[in-house]
Amino acid sequence: MNISLLPSLLGAFGMVAAFVVYLLVMKYPDGEDKVKKIGDQIHTGALTFMKTEYKILLAFVVVLVVLAYQFLGTETAIAVIVGAACSSLAGFIGMYAATKANVRTATAAQKDGAPAALSVAFYGGSIMGLCVASLGLIGLGGLYYFYAANGGSHIHALEGFGMGASVVALFSRVGGGIFTKSADVGADLVGKIEAGIPEDDPRNPGVIADNVGDNVGDVAGMGSDIFESYCGSMIASIAIAYTMNSESLMFLPLALAAVGLIASIVGIVIVKLQSSKEPASALRSGTLLAPLIFIGMAYFVIQDMNDVPVAVLWCVVSGAVGGVLIGLITEYYTGGNPVKEIAESGETGPATVMISGLSVGMQSVVIPILILATIILVSTSIASGAGVAGVYGVGIAAVGMLSTVGITMAIDAYGPVADNAGGIAEMAGMGKEVRDITDSLDELGNTTAAIGKGFAIGAAALAALAIISAYSAQVSSVYGEAFSLSLNNPMVLVGMFIGICIPFLISAITMKAVGDAAFEMINEIRRQFKEIPGLMDGTADPDSEKCVEIATKASLKKMMLPGIIAVAMPAVVGFGLGAIALGGMLAGGLLGCVALALFMANAGGAWDNAKKYVEKGNLGGKGSETHAAVVVGDTVGDPFKDTSGPAMNILINVMAMVSLVISGLLPLNGIFF
Amino acid sequence: MNISLLPSLLGAFGMVAAFVVYLLVMKYPDGEDKVKKIGDQIHTGALTFMKTEYKILLAFVVVLVVLAYQFLGTETAIAVIVGAACSSLAGFIGMYAATKANVRTATAAQKDGAPAALSVAFYGGSIMGLCVASLGLIGLGGLYYFYAANGGSHIHALEGFGMGASVVALFSRVGGGIFTKSADVGADLVGKIEAGIPEDDPRNPGVIADNVGDNVGDVAGMGSDIFESYCGSMIASIAIAYTMNSESLMFLPLALAAVGLIASIVGIVIVKLQSSKEPASALRSGTLLAPLIFIGMAYFVIQDMNDVPVAVLWCVVSGAVGGVLIGLITEYYTGGNPVKEIAESGETGPATVMISGLSVGMQSVVIPILILATIILVSTSIASGAGVAGVYGVGIAAVGMLSTVGITMAIDAYGPVADNAGGIAEMAGMGKEVRDITDSLDELGNTTAAIGKGFAIGAAALAALAIISAYSAQVSSVYGEAFSLSLNNPMVLVGMFIGICIPFLISAITMKAVGDAAFEMINEIRRQFKEIPGLMDGTADPDSEKCVEIATKASLKKMMLPGIIAVAMPAVVGFGLGAIALGGMLAGGLLGCVALALFMANAGGAWDNAKKYVEKGNLGGKGSETHAAVVVGDTVGDPFKDTSGPAMNILINVMAMVSLVISGLLPLNGIFF
């Protein structure tokens, strides 16, 4: 058998594993009438959103495919389709499974207690994790087999896969992010503050939309996001290896990802086996053991391959270890002492909560970026020392960080499933005991989600850097020495200034989008409380579907502008100012995206947990003035951490991938100059 | 007479003009007993702070001088002393005059009405503006005459002047920024919210400190800030011209600044002549006419000089016009529609005020940075087209933007003088009519201050870019082709990642410093209200000096860490990772500093004016819930716009200037690698 077929086959095996886990989830009962009904509402709402979103996406992808076909050939056009399809499928299946697991987690908590509930929630997340890794291997591995392996000559077509995947990711992340936070902010502001009913109260018309949002934003959106970094890092490494004329180096990223999938499956089993004891340590040992197993397997893979220097293993190690470290730093800033300080600053009101949270967010940028710089330094010098292009080392470090994406994503997606289960338990009135179990699972999920977010940012940054390097290598192969990205070149500087603006602009647009969409949501919820008789007494049902519809429409409308800016900017700058300015733009964009992503994600996470800290009874607990102050922080943190922040990861990857795809068509200096 | 002596002589003339204006201010009466006493308290408090600050600064400068003497020779050491002395003197005289003008403005408002009050306040600001421009010309012009003119061979010693000036600026800006906002936030939180007394009420022990803060932060700090950009842009242009071996091009920046001073004096006279009619249009016509006059004079200067291509005038124009445009954009974001939107979002509480304000701040980054990019593109292509190094064009554009600093700074410093006059009127109980006049002057001052801030950021960015280019040119002259700042070089990337962290770190530290210092202030004010009998009835005086002392101590203690980081980072990276990584760091730092400076300054300005908009009676007016919400925004905006934001301008200039000074000593690749 041809060895280059192996990644796809392992991917197929991973999909089977995902299906097995799905069957395990479905073995659990979906609960009694009321519980089942709520679960169905969330499931249907999520599907409705996804269907509408994918229709819009389809139109967008068709345009891309036509353009790709016209300017880059049939192979690239096909790759765009495959990339978009795999990314959509990963998001869709993962979200489908998550909306089956949430209601079963709640029921398991009621019937069988905490360990069973943890199992179901974690299974739910695992399906997402396995799908992301497996579909990436199937899609990219398959294209590699047909286009690149054994002297195939359509290597650049693989970049189309990346573009298809990243565009889908962008819209899913931004659309999902606006959906989830407009529903969340809207439901909270009217429900908790105006109507004076608790969170997730079934009388609140916006609560179903809020729970739908967790799935479309935190599950499907996050899945497409990681999928895109995962494939992007592989594509970039392959493209760089191609300029070195080494088929072994080209195949290495796929081989690493394939054994990473195996390590992830082992990790998932480890978590499952330990989950009956201590949930927190179970998840943590899965997170830490899977990369170790992966590194061990990577050693044998690298040693086994001809022409691959064994030293390259250290690039893999630097990425895998760096990813874990960034995750732990994120955990500190969103869970450690800084959170307590923010909560304490609530004693002097919301203004000081804001100041301290913004300060924590800004501070949290430093160490993760220094870790990234260290990974770059280490991986490039190892690679050059081993006689391989330095940037290939960065690509492999990114692959190393992302190879165990199966388990990382599983643990990450577990969070929203547990969160949803809590919401369902509250809405269905399943009692305090059930709610306590789901609360503890949810709290754990918040920590793992924070780690996952830090990891996602680090991985996206490295993947983007690798793609930018591949862009630079490809343009160089056309223009040779004339293509110089020296900081002394004013075109590079101009590009960098343009680049640093884009993340600020997209953040501003997405923040405002959440505010506007939440405003529509607030008006609808207010209307229902006013116009539906018996709603407050609980004798009449709210029109939850209407709220889902509003969030869907608003979010899909508002995702267009940032999406188009992200996709169009590389073409505008690339053709308008030239390939040199575009190189500068990508560098400036990378710096801005990474810094803002960390700033917003960590400030948001810290505010969220400061609120939870007070709600546990500290500093006066719920209902105190300190609580009111930290709630303000949490509300501001919502779009920070779940809309604008995550959009940054994809923004830079979309821009880099589009640049890579069009790199062969660009003028050195643009038409405007 | 030697022509290269002219700039210094014109500088001396400017100082005489400043003295004449000072005498004009002193002709006005300083008011009755109570008014005089309050004025004296502010004046003494400000002097006390400055003296203590300058003692600390002296120690720091001594260390720098010794290091400069040891490694770079006597000339550089002398230049460091001159630079630090000129910068300190400019700040000191300006602030001294401002604290004489404030009380006279209040008295003039009472006795002679609005036009007289405007005159005094504007005179007060003008002294600062004239001192900045004149001392820059005297100090730098003098050093140029001795070290560089007529074939002098100590051109690099001029860089010591820049380092001395920028280090003083850094500490003044950061120390002053922490002082002013800790006093402001502390006085407001206890006075307005807890004790329920109005702003600037004489019973509030923190009010004198608050008014002192306006002078040490917004006058002295801003003065040193602009002084440093002003001299930095000239030094960088001279250094770049030196690599081109053209004495005419070396002298051009000083010649431009000299005629800029004349244009500024003309502008000041224009404002004075028009001020009896419409204050707003008087200030505006001064702002717009002075650059026009300057451009006209610059044309004759350039035409008159041998070896200077006339096309270079367009570099001057691009800078001068760009500066005005950035100012106008700033005015829009901090005064136009966005402010109304923020105020309206206050109707749904403080969280939405925060979200909309952050969104406005982020959006406001885009156009000014694109203007900067355009200036770079235009000025470099004009310069290269005229046969001069492209980066020299950027330097001259920066000089063009900053040459009319005399009037820009005058209009900017007018704001805090008017603000202080309002505070004095309130504290002394001078009545509603007087307060109305000072309020209208203050409001106008807020707009001009916003424009001044935008201008300061743009100028600082261009100056820093010119200094970085000079750094690059000097290292190149040592290492030749081996010194390449290509984005493909991992060392450049690592440097850029380090560079983008620094502005976030310094912002985080300074924000937290304000929070901590305000906390100390709050405790002291609370103590006084509790322990001083009769304070609330007005029968006993508060211990204002104690509050000034606390703000002084806290701010000087807290300015050390950010100051040391800023000065040390170039040396650490330069010697540790090498000159290439340091080049990357400066580029990354530049992007981060410019973006964060705009983001924070404009978000803060917009929040401030949203509060004022509501206080004018809109959306429920004072005391409404909307008002409470926008007050939160204003409080968060305080450290944003007056501490952390302005620190960014100087941060990048200090780092660039230190790098330029040590450029001759650096290894290509550092000792760690």
Tell me about this structure:
2 copies of one chain form a homodimer. By secondary structure, chain A is mainly alpha-helical. Chain A has one domain (3-665). Chain A is built from 20 helices and no strands. Chain A is globular. Chain A starts with 5 loop residues before the first helix and ends in an 11-residue tail after the last helix. At the A-B interface, α5, α11, α12, α13 and α15 of A face α5, α11, α12, α13 and α15 of B.
Poorly predicted segments of chain A: none
Shape of chain A: globular
Mean pLDDT of chain A: 92
Largest interface: A-B, 75 and 75 residues
Amino- and carboxy-terminal Cα gap of chain A: 53 Å
Number of strands of chain A: 0
Count of distinct structural domains of chain A: 1
Q: What is the percent of helical residues of chain A?
A: over 70%
Percentage beta strand of chain A: under 5%
- From N to C, what is the helix and strand string of chain A? HHHHHHHHHHHHHHHHHHHH
| Oligomer kind | homodimer
Secondary-structure-derived class of chain A: mainly alpha
Number of helices of chain A: 20
Give the C-alpha Rg of chain A: 24 Å
Summarize the main sheet of chain A.
Answer: none
